Amino acid sequence: MRSNQVTFATLLVIIAAADAQLSEEDKATIVDQHNVFRSQVDPTATYMRKMKWDENLKVVAEQYAAKCVWDHNPDLEDTGENLYATNGAFDPTKAITEWYNEHKFYDYDYNNCTDGEMCGHYTQVVWADTYRVGCATYLCEKLQGLAVEKSTLFVCNYYPAGNFIGEKPYENGDSCSKCPDDFSVCDHNICAPDIILSTTGPEWVTTTVPEWMTTSDFSEAHQMPHTPAGTDGPDGSTAGATDKEEIGTIRETAADMIPYIIQPAQACAVMAKPWLLTLLMTVLFTYVIH
């Protein structure tokens, strides 16, 4: 009987880990959502490369997410990173949308964030040169650095990295006016390769981005060192960290002050998908008849 209990407990762990993996549909959604938001930058970009999925970046994200640490990967060099955590049902569209919603705190002319706010997730999402993304999720019993249990950690890595201090995420001008020769196709304001392997793409939208509730969600953006903080404004003045926060500054949000409320259905990873229930019931039935 004890052997059966141990085996069953192990099965639960395996099922929970499998459920934390991103599906092919999730991967497509992540890429599509990035490209949708990259196509909608305001002001418009002369050059914005089309994003695609990268399995190597996914592996990097996967290995780091499994550590369940609420801080950035210290081993990254030329790779960017965005973090997101929630103790609710994980939705990649919601996560990326929350990153994008930081655009309202970003001043393109001064290349800085509004005082007391973050915008580094947004600038990484729309960094013109970045064209590869790989992400992973992990169900963390405890997330080191946050007082929360049973949360989903979502890690996205980007290549090449964005968020270089002193540099803007893209150059303002007519859309696709400076696409390079090997990315000469203008696809919804994005510079795409001359040969497009897939005819299917994201469902392009221009509607207002929804305001997601963030009482259970957290984000962190990775900042790359490059040039001194503070850039010339439109009038020639300098807006430094005393006026506005640097792009990518990691800080706690108001949501950090609010206690987590974990609903029973959210706390059990085994209940997340119907096929898991079927597998679980089959195993239980097998144990009963034996």
Automatic annotation (TrEMBL):
Signal peptide, first to last residue:
1-20
Q: Which residues form the SCP domain?
A: 25-166
- Entry-linked SUPFAM superfamilies: PR-1-like (SSF55797)
Please provide, in alphabetical order, the Gene Ontology terms of the cellular component aspect for this entry.
extracellular region
PROSITE patterns assigned to the protein according to its UniProt record, in alphabetical order: CRISP_1, CRISP_2
Per UniProt, the keywords (alphabetical) are: Membrane, Signal, Transmembrane, Transmembrane helix
Matching SMART domains, A to Z? SCP (SM00198)
Q: Which residues span the membrane?
A: 272-289
Against InterPro entries, the record matches this protein to: Allrgn_V5/Tpx1_CS, CAP_dom, CAP_sf, CRISP-related
Q: Where is this region: Disordered?
A: 221-242
Gene3D superfamilies named in the record: CAP (3.40.33.10)
Its recorded name reads SCP domain-containing protein
**What is the originating organism of this protein?**
Denticeps clupeoides
> Highest lineage ranks of the organism?
Eukaryota, Metazoa, Chordata, Craniata, Vertebrata
